[in-house]
Every structure is written in C-alpha cells, then in structure tokens.
Amino acid sequence: MAIKLEKPDQYKEFLDKFDVFLFDCDGVLWSGNEPLPGVKDTMELLRSSGKQIIFVSNNSTKSREDYMKKINAHEIEAKLEEIYPSAYSSAIYVKKVLKLPEDKKVFILGEGGIESELDRVGVKHTGGTDASLRRAVNSDDLNTIRPDPSIGAVLCGMDRHVTYLKYCMAYQYLQDPNCAFLLTNQDSTFPTNGTFFPGSGSISYPLIFSTGRTPKILGKPYDEMMEAIVAGVNFDRKKACFVGDRLNTDIQFAKNSGLGGSLLVLTGVSQESEIYEKDAPVVPDYYINSLGDLAKKA
Amino acid sequence: MAIKLEKPDQYKEFLDKFDVFLFDCDGVLWSGNEPLPGVKDTMELLRSSGKQIIFVSNNSTKSREDYMKKINAHEIEAKLEEIYPSAYSSAIYVKKVLKLPEDKKVFILGEGGIESELDRVGVKHTGGTDASLRRAVNSDDLNTIRPDPSIGAVLCGMDRHVTYLKYCMAYQYLQDPNCAFLLTNQDSTFPTNGTFFPGSGSISYPLIFSTGRTPKILGKPYDEMMEAIVAGVNFDRKKACFVGDRLNTDIQFAKNSGLGGSLLVLTGVSQESEIYEKDAPVVPDYYINSLGDLAKKA
C-alpha cells in the first residue's frame, strides 16, 4: 500500500528513515529543459541534513560531465562521483563484468555519452557519433558488411542519428554468438519538449526482432545498474530510497535492487491513478505530488 | 506429413493437382540477383501446360512495374496483372478496406514501390522517398512534430533510408487513435547479397514498441494479402498451390488463406531439417530441392 506524503510529520518521518537518496533526473528534478518548482530547495534541505545524494539516469546520450553541467544549470549541487547515467554503468559493465579483451572493440549504436565513458575506462569503440555512418546503405556495404571478430560487443543506446546502415552493421556483428548484445536501457519513449518520442529501447528493437537475440540491459530497472552504483558509492541499500517518476523503471528498480524504499513523484510519466490500477506493475512505498513539496512542507 | 517430390510420377501428380501456382520470388525464382538453375524451364513448362501463374512478394520497395522488369530480367514471362508485391496489396487495402477519405494522407515509412502503388489508386501520401526527411532531428522538429489530423494512416514497409526524424513523425501521428497503423509485411530479415539484413518487420518495431500499438499486417502470411490477389485474379483457392522458401511466411500463408496446397523449395531461407523439427511452425504439403527440378525431372 503506497503512502501519500501530505502532512509535515509524514515528511519528517520519511526523511529520517533514509541516509541515501538516489534520484532519477528528468521528470523529477526538471521536465525537458524546464526546472520543477522547489526542487532546488529540497536538494539543499537534503544536503544540509547530511543525506548522501546520487543522480541516476537511463539517458545514455550524456557522459557524467555532461550530466553534471545539466544538473548545475538547474542550480543543483552535484559532484562527478555522484552521477550515474546509463552510459557510465554500461562502460563499467563492459570493463569489469564483460572484461572485454584489449584487442576487441565495442560497436556503439548510440551517442557521445557512451563514447566518453568507454574512453575513460579505456575500452576501444567504433560506430557511435561517426558521421560517415549517417548515410544510405549502398551495394558495396551489402557485399562487405559481415560478422567481424574484432567487434566484441554491440552496445545500443539512444541514437538520434540512427540509420539503416548502422542497423545492418550491428545485425551482422550480432550473427557472431561471441559478440555480446548490450542495451543501455529499455525505455520505450524519450520524454522531451513537453511530449514523448521513441526511446532507446525502441531504437534497439530492429536488432532484437531481426537477430532473435535478447540484449543484456544495463539501465534501470535492472540490478546491473545498481551494482555499478554500489561499486562506486558504498552504502547500505536498506537505508537508501529511490526517487523517480516511472513505476516500471524507477520504482521497479528500487524493488529489483533491494533498496529500503521508493518515492514516486507525480511530475513525470506515471500518474496517481496508475498506482491504484488492478494491473499496476509495481507500487511505490511513498508518493508525493512534486519533489519541491518536501522542502515546502517539511 | 510433408511429401518430398523426387520421382517423375510424383512430379506429374503434383502438377496435375493444381490449376494455379502462386510464387514467392526471392529464394524461389532467384537468389539476390542470381538466377536459380532451371527455373526458367519450369516456368515455361507451367505456361505450356496452361497453368495460371501469379507472382507474390512481401518486398514493398518495388511497384508492380519494377517487379515485372525484375522478373523479365530473369527471362521469365510475366504480365503486370499477375504480379502482387506487398506495396500493391497495401495500396488496395488503404483504398478499398480502409476507404481513406480524400482529404487524408498516408505517411509512408518506406520506399518508392509504395508511393507508386498509392499514386495509381489515387491516395495522397507524404514521407516515403522525401529526401528532406533523411537528416538529423533538430529542436525545432521536437517542438513542432505533433499528431496531425491530415494523416489518416502510417504505412510502414522496408525503408533503407529510415531516420530518427521519420520515427518521431510516425510516433506522433500514431498518438491519434484515428490514425491507422499499417505494415506491408512483418519479415524480420531482408535476404540480399548472399546474406540477410534487418527487414520490414524489424524496421517498424521502434513504432510498435514505443506506441504500444499493433499494426495491421498486409503481406504474407496474412489473408488480407490473398484477399487483394483474389480481388484481382479470380480463382478457386482449392485448385491453387503456393510455392515459397519460408515456412513461417509462405507456407503459413497457404494455410491461412485456405489454398489447396503448398510447396517449399530449399533454395532460400527454410531448410529441410526445419520441416521435421518438433516445433516447426507449419509443415508444407510438398517440398523439393529446387524449383528447377520440376522441369528437369517431370
């Protein structure tokens, strides 16, 4: 049963219960490029109360530096080591779990954030923002694009420059069963400019359907992402609360990774009515109209 | 139980049983751009025996004229009214079943074949081969692309120039529940140049996953396509045999549309062993190593 935070003593009890707050960003801290009211005050309240803060995002287009700039632009304090976009958790996975041999490369169907994070952990890559792949397929491509033993993994994220040429390359590399198939996150939509457009999970689907393979998903709600976070920031999962705007990613992530609590904010994707639907995929421990209410009413 | 045609009396019995032969093209008549041995002789044998011949293809990139040229290039006789690519069955569906109002347009995620066939039946369209959509999305697009009541249907086929911009447009149009969602065919792969690349069904998947909508599929193995064929060429389905190289499209199509028979050729996608697999999706009535064997051994 989800508890709606409305009264001051409920806020206080909620804040006292957790030492660590992990935040989804878009729909929680801001919406598109617009700040959400009171968020800055709430974040300052948490900092001054000595809470540990971690920023988590399934958005794979940005590196941690990019994210830090974006968070700071909303006048929210953030340090690099507090920021976990899926580009970073994916790079950690390739380096530490997959242990990609040094002579192998990652083929990226995605944007610059993934490239930056792979560079930082010293993993070679191809594809990604390579402008020469933003063109039509020609018959020479169809004759020459074939499985390539130098490609050890295909890593898919959000790619606003996706082309059939990139799909053809990734499809052929994935014919090799030794080539890993990785996905930064499975979000079906990408919230921006007050609406939605197809997201990373959707962009990757041509490869899932054509190869018949199931990718390893490295973003929320999968525990792989929490493993990456805990590897960087050591904390007691039971004293941590995940704050997000989507039931099927954020709140599910809190459950999948065994966190002590979850808080849904109603400033993003999921609506209050969805919590009470018979087939609600998962229910938050707490919910609140807006993150800003915490500072306003506590 | 599938019967393998091997002896002359089996060939004769098979040929006597049917008046109409419907052929899938790629993998049956040719492979990529290469002719398959003996096919020309088999087609001439059928013509000289007074059999009716129909060419069927899920390839949506070509119009009927394009296909006629391709068939003739392999020295196989074909008339325009014998040719049914999925671009044509899709156009017929939009015009006759959907009865798209004259003030509405079809947004095409696909190639020129669909445009030609929609032009012929007098249906307005946008998207398709429009070169101005083969570019990156910009922030102006994200602010302005929204549901559009002038778009009555999104029709997806194979599109080797697919871009995120086109996906964004189609995604927004499909937010309008009155906008129909159509797919020329669901083939996961596109056989060419001796290998495979992602096919029409795969290209459409970002829209299926992001919108949560299920498209109406207008190619094999769905009966909608046979309805279009029978509307053009009147014949007794029980005296007709479908000849193809894929169990889950061609042979399933013969079953779904109530044809009298089906013949699998082993020169394309499905292999002999698949017929005998425990989970074979569907089994042909007859199978043969190569279509050319019919003329050689009959």
Order of helices and strands of chain A: EHEEEHEHEHEHEHEHEEEHEHEHEHEH
The fourth-level CATH homologous superfamily of the largest domain in chain A is HAD superfamily/HAD-like
Which whole number gives the mean pLDDT of chain A? 95
Q: Give the biggest beta sheet of chain A.
A: 7 strands, parallel
CATH architecture of the largest domain in chain A: 3-Layer(aba) Sandwich
Radius of gyration of chain A: 20 Å
Quaternary organisation: homodimer
The assigned structural class of chain A equals: alpha/beta
Pair of chains with the largest interface and how many residues each contributes = A-B, 37 and 37 residues
Distance between the termini of chain A: 22 Å
CATH class of the largest domain in chain A: Alpha Beta
Per DSSP E runs of 2 or more residues, the count of β-strands of chain A stands at 16
Proportion in β-strands of chain A: 15-25%
Q: Runs of chain A with pLDDT <50, length 5+?
A: none
CATH-derived topology of the largest domain in chain A = Rossmann fold
Strand order of the largest sheet of chain A: 1-16-15-14-2-5-6
- The 3D shape of chain A can be described as elongated
Number of domains of chain A: 2
Number of helical segments with 4 or more residues of chain A? 12
Helix content of chain A: 25-40%
Quick overview of this protein structure:
Chain A is an alpha/beta fold. Chain A is built from twelve helices and 16 strands. Chain A has two domains: 3-58 and 221-265 and 283-297, 3-Layer(aba) Sandwich (Rossmann fold); 88-217, Rossmann fold (3-Layer(aba) Sandwich), CATH 3.40.50.
